[in-house]
Amino acid sequence: MQKLSGFVPIIGAPNAGKSTLLNAVLGQNISIVTAKPQTTRNRITGIYTKDNVQIVFVDTPGILDPKYKLQQFMSREIESSVIESDVIILVIDIKKYDKETFKDLYEKYSNEYKDHKIFCVLNKIDLIRKEDILAVIKEISDNFRIDEIIPVSAVKGFNIDELLKTIIKYLPENEFYFETDVLTSQPEKFFVAEIIRQNVLRQYKDEVPFSVYIDIDEFKEREIGKDYIRASIIVERDTQKAIIIGEGGLKVKKLGEYSRKSVEEFLGRPVYLELFVKVRKDWKNDDDFLKKNFNKFGTSVT
Ligand SMILES: Nc1nc2c(ncn2[C@@H]2O[C@H](COP(=O)(O)OP(=O)(O)OP(=O)(O)O)[C@@H](O)[C@H]2O)c(=O)[nH]1
Ligand SMILES: [Mg+2]
Fold first, then answer.
1. pTM value?
2. How far apart are CA 143 and CA 100, in angstroms?
3. Among 21, 112, 115, 297, which is least packed, fewest CB within 10 Å?
4. Does the pLDDT of residue 213 top 70, yes or no?
5. What residues make up the domain containing 246?
6. What confidence tens digit (pLDDT) does each residue in 115-144 have?
């Protein structure tokens, strides 16, 4: 049978549910999800392969106006995932749908990427009434030239099969880009850093978790005994370091325990995880730091 294969970036506002959608189509949690906007920082490849079909999904950071250098790096991750793609998925949180905001998003992508097919995935339909879902679908189809509009609930798994079936209809005939058993192109190290960052985002409040960069200093696989992982939690200021550590080191201890458990679950083997908290002043605006570290674990699409 002829093989069908293509790249499908998942784009949208922060918190729209892009990473949850990626995890839902893959049936596995590879992209971190939290209730906080701006959770995803890099593009994350998730590869769906079944029979003669391979869809290379690319989860991206939420679209925003870059206010500091890290966000400029994040925005480039979005652009670079769209260029080579076949179908662009715009994810909208249906509860927050607003015609003007949608128009801006639509115009940006339909003007810049004229040859691409554009799908609108209306996510979080579990949160609103059916009549309201239908009203949004009608408004979009009456006003915009969107190739497909698909209502889903990524968290409940509603209509995900329909989304996959629809994407497949648009895929070009192509050889597969990846081996059939490959789920992602990022190395384990990247996911370990992301899992720790997810725990930071969930455990700490306000701005502190957004000032955190996780570096994996050492990742030693051992034949006998547990794997050894040493990670740095890099923050922007001394005050943030104190918050991460907590009184008597209790907070960072708890972070270490939770992170170890989630890393073990992900890797399927026991690990010994050591965390160190360090300050790199204002790293989010530091070009040298970002050039060296952003995307250091190779999250490139191919
Ligand atoms: N009720 C409901 N909540 C959802 C759904 N999909 C995602 N969420 C929630 O929305 C929040 C954000 O989800 P993410 O997947 O992290 O959103 P994102 O678009 O990747 O966000 P960024 O990475 O920050 O751009 C989380 O709390 C999810 O559990 C859905 O279908 N229904
Ligand atoms: Mg995300």
1. 0.95
2. 11
3. 115
4. yes
5. 188-293
6. 899 999 999 999 999 999 999 999 999 999
Per-residue confidence band for 301, with pLDDT thresholds at 50, 70 and 90: very low
Domain count, the chain: 2
6 in ligand 1 pocket by Cβ < 6 Å?
Answer: no
Ligand 1 pocket check for 9: Cβ under 6 Å: no
User: Dihedral sign, CA of 155, 21, 12, 74?
Assistant: positive
Ion ligand 2 — residues with CB under 5 Å?
18-19, 39-40
Ligand nearest to the CA of 34: 1
In a domain, 276, yes or no: yes
In a shared domain, residues 158 and 34 = yes
Contact 187, 30 (CB under 8 A): no
Structural contact between residues 112 and 131, judged by C-beta atoms closer than 8 angstroms: no
Distance 36 CA to ligand 2 centre (A): 9
**Using a 6 Å cutoff on CB, does residue 127 contact ligand 1?**
yes
Atom of ligand 1 nearest to the CA of 62: 25
Distance (Å, whole) CA 195 – CA 189: 10
My answer on whether 164 and 16 are in the same domain is: yes
Question: Which residue has the least CA distance to atom 32 on ligand 1?
Answer: 124
